[in-house]
Amino acid sequence: MGNFTTSSILLLFLFSSVVTSLPLSTNSRWIVDDRGRRVKLACVNWASHMEPVLAEGLSKQPMDTIAKRIVSMGFNCVRFTWPLYLITNDSLASLTVRQSFQQLGLLESIAGIQANNPSIIDVSLIKAYQAVVSSLGKNNVMVILDNHISKPGWCCSNLDDNGFFGDKYFDPDLWITGLTRMATLFNGVTNVVGMSLRNEPRGPKQNINDWYKYMPKGAEAVHSANPNVLVILSGLSFDRDLSFLKNQQLKLTFSGKLVFEAHWYGFSDGQTT
Ligand SMILES: *[C@@H]1O[C@H](CO)[C@@H](O)[C@H](O)[C@H]1NC(C)=O
User: Fold this and answer.
1) If you take atom 6 of ligand 1, which residue's CA is the nearest one?
2) How far apart are CA 181 and CA 208, in angstroms?
3) What is the pTM of this model?
4) Ligand 1 atom closest to 100 (CA)
5) Per-block mean pLDDT, blocks of 10 residues, the chain (273 long)
6) Of 22, 23, 67, 222, which residue is 20 to 30 A from 76 by alpha carbon distance?
7) Which of 92, 124, 150, 171 has most ligand 1 atoms within 8 Å of CB, for mutation?
8) What does the alpha-carbon distance between residue 124 and residue 92 come to, in Å, rounded to a whole number?
9) Strand pairing partners for 195?
């Protein structure tokens, strides 16, 4: 009996320590949950911004299996990438998973998706994206919706025309439209805890003035459409540089939701380009 009581208490303790009360917000330098307790996001990146615009790997394993594997590896979160055109180009968004893979001639993958994730093979790409978020939610995995690129495909290079405001594939107005739609679509989906507004700004057009001009617009648009999510901003030069914030704070109408994201690679300090 004594042992039983002890282990019950221990289990309760473990349980209460892992359940995060959502939504998240910020408190000084920390991310905290709804009860003010610090939350450390340990996110795995899951790519859904490539040409087929479907989360990678769904031809190999059921999404629920992947979600459970992510949890078993100690992660509590997925940074789930999406290309802007998924939500701004209606003919892309309404393409079914099967059609998307057919267009690319990826017939083997169609058979794999049919076998492992039959429920999404004939739904639209945007519904398939939502289905993955929902599957992660059922497994208590938090999700950050990461706008990774505009035109679906491998990311990123300085010259891919997806790098900075004004690039061929990076129209600031369309970006704000897309962010607003995505924030609206996931308003009320509790496990979506944040949106990172754009991965790795870069390229010949990058400059601090336009960063201060457009990032607040994107942030405000997301916050108005979905006040629950953390609004996550990246810096310049592939998000290796946020140093400009030291001289000029970002002015926003809301507080308690802004997070800065910095990227640090093994080659970051020695890169010459
Ligand atoms: C919209 O998506 C369709 C289907 O992938 C593509 O053929 C078309 O070029 C896209 N339009 C734009 C403006 O990107």
Assistant:
1) 92
2) 26
3) 0.91
4) 5
5) 47 55 96 96 98 98 98 97 97 96 98 98 98 98 98 95 98 98 98 98 97 98 98 96 96 98 84 55
6) 222
7) 92
8) 9
9) 145, 231
